[in-house]
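agent: user wants the full assembly modeled, not chains individually. Plan: 1) parse entity lines 2) check alphabet per entity 3) run joint structure prediction 4) return tokens. Steps 1-2 passed, two entities, 554 residues total. Proceeding.
--- entities ---
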Amino acid sequence: MTGIQPTVAGEILPADTVWEEKLSWFDALPRPVSMIGLLVAFLGLWQLVTGLGLVSPIILPGPWRTAQELVFVGQSLLSGNYMLAAFWVTAQEVVLGFIIAVGIGVALGVLVGETAFGERAVMPYIVAIDTMPKLAFAPLFVAWMGFGISSKVALAAFISIFPVVVGTAAGLHAADTNARMLFKSIGASRWQTLIKLKIPTGLPQFFTGVKIASISVVAGAIAGEFLGGGRGFGELIRVAASQLDTPRVFSLIIYLSLLGLVMFGFVVWVQRRFVFWHRNSTTQD
Amino acid sequence: MIEAPDLLAPGGHIARPVFQLRGVSKSFARRNVQALDKVDLTLLEGQFASVIGASGCGKSTLLKIMAGLTPPSSGSVMLSGKPVLGPRRDIGMMFQQATLFPWRTTLENIVLPIEIQDGKKAALAVHDRAHALLDLVGLNGFDKVFPSELSGGMAQRAAMCRMLIAEPDVLLLDEPFSALDEISRDFMNMELQRICLERNATAFLVTHSIPEAVILSDVVYVMSPRPGRFVRAVEIDLPRPRTLDMLSTPLFGDYTKTIRGLLDKGAFI
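--- prediction returned ---
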């Protein structure tokens, strides 16, 4: 007893009243355990459904058969045969589509986010086009640009441009009244306010838009290949599906998803370098 | 018309008027609101004046007009003999939020006004001055730290340095410490007084805290809402430098009582 606290004579106090907060076992599982557990459960269910013959192997191959095919496709990708060539075609479409989407998207986003004209006159049209089913434009792009990669690049860029525009414009609006007033009070020009206040403030929103674009650009390229032929991965998937080679389709999709993962990872990496002050900008936002 | 009651500076000599407002009115046509109605104000060199009133009485609008951030609907604003027609470099401002930018270090935040007005080279040239200011507000050693690592009080102190970096003649303060807890706030108020006395700065404070207005000011303007106008200028005749001990003196209590009485009458008309 330090003598600071008043004590009542004869009072009996327990040494500690430590107690644990209850967390159900379901929520208390560590992340690796819960992730692997979920995967095992999924594979088990898959094996059960296919092993019992509830589904025809043509409709849904078993996990083992799919894994074998995955290894086979991986090997042929590494050996550099036609599959690798197809992969590169799709990768080119994705990268070019992404660059175009970000380039035009930023330009439109700055027009819409920074000028009253853009916000009043241009934004309604952008919203109107964004609400259209963009895949329906695929035949048009093929008609305009042919069956080569340019029609796929165009569709991929067209699909992924809108999140960039919206992210850029929202970012430029993100600076709060106090910050704007401060810049005004120190006599900043419009250009200085844009460069030193609005752009840095808006980077997190901008990158959110770019992240969405980095995913949808892959979908755009594949949809373009489905609808416009060519020599890409989408064509391999289409052919495998038409031959009812379901394990092959699954494997191709999984390798294709690597492309999306690389694009997304690249954007996250760039964001971490440029938006170092924004701690919570993980993959979730 | 309510004037600052005498033209004597704290030192006793006749002081030069720094800010002169004549018949300043502001109405917002869109909302059909008269925010300010014929406000007259003279701010003397080295004087610390406060305006106090309920929220929405137009005191922040008044400050924005004085700072050249928004034009008045009628009336004139003169600063050091020249009309205020836009933001001026001889004005330093501080807001309720510190508004430090997270991508800049504390030092880079402080030299921002210089960087905007005179370029990066000029900003580099005032690094020594910025360090001196950091010393002045007790933030020595925090120059390379990013704002996310500063507490609320520290951030406001950095904002104070940013306000002072361009060596303004007049400080316009819009509830600068109202987001801080009372302990930090008392401390910051004393710091503010010290800085103002040291530089003979002229200051105009917008607040809704009666004790804060009284402890800091030479004169407190009590404002009534709708339309915003001054009801009375209360001269605070407490010796300088003020101390926190004065908060519990009878004279201080009389001042707060007077002002509270005026606010009660004005607020519910």
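agent: reporting back. The CA atoms of residues 132 and 140 of chain B lie 9 Å apart. The first strand of chain B starts at residue 17 and ends at 28.
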